[in-house]
Write a structure and sequence with these properties.
The protein is of the alpha+beta class and 203 residues long. 49% of the residues lie in helices and 14% in strands. The longest helix is centred in the last third of the chain and has 25 residues. The termini are far apart.
Length: 203
């Protein structure tokens, strides 16, 4: 029926990623303004947000927390056009540690509290770290293969920067994956070689 077609169209626009976390498959439709409380929006298309089951379960019917909007509306909220999601890659005890955080000073005061609540309530720091570690292992497995084949580090860095630029255009500057590649692309040759050696010893 018409409602099913609307849902399918929304999922296509979201490129098969949850609009709240950017990780899960959007197999649910969240009514940003809950239909039980705002029946006038029950068939209002901009109120339909394609989300994964985990985000849908966490958000539930919550809109406000302590009089502040707790979740980003992916259509109406205007987010900064610069990176505010930061991936931190650090060496620790012979291994690599990855973490994600918000650079709050880069967020406009009008949206800052909502972005923070969204990030914290959906546990995105931990969820991005889990996804990022999987991606990091895949990335450096490929980099190690290139290095072992004699590819120069400067060429590898150039490939990394190109990949980051593609992600920045396609997925935006504040996608968890873009943030990870931005962090990797910022590495100097000595830093990248050191990380390659770390991964090589763990193979």
């Amino acid at each position: 029926d018409m409602k099913d077609r609307i849902y399918e169209g929304l999922e296509t626009e979201s490129r098969a990623k949850c609009c709240y976390c950017g990780i899960g498959e959007p197999d649910n439709i969240d009514h940003y303004f809950p239909k039980a409380k705002f029946s006038e929006f029950s068939l209002y298309v901009p109120n339909f947000i394609p989300v994964c089951s985990r985000c849908n379960r966490i958000k539930s019917d919550v809109i406000f927390v302590n009089d502040k909007r707790a979740y980003i509306h992916t259509i109406f909220d205007i987010l900064p056009m610069h990176p505010f999601l930061i991936a931190n890659l650090n060496e620790d005890d012979g291994g690599m540690v990855l973490s994600y955080e918000l650079d709050e000073k880069l967020l406009d005061e009008s949206i800052r509290d909502t972005v923070k609540l969204h990030f914290d309530r959906l546990k995105l720091s931990n969820r991005y770290t889990i996804q990022g570690l999987k991606e990091l292992n895949r990335i450096f497995t490929q980099i190690l293969l290139l290095s072992n084949r004699g590819e120069k580090t400067e060429i590898i860095i150039d490939h990394i920067r190109q990949r980051y630029e593609v992600l920045a255009v396609n997925d935006g500057l504040n996608c968890w994956e873009t943030a990870l590649w931005r962090e990797i692309s910022s590495l100097t040759e000595p830093e990248l070689n050191r990380i390659i050696n770390i991964f090589d010893t763990k193979q």
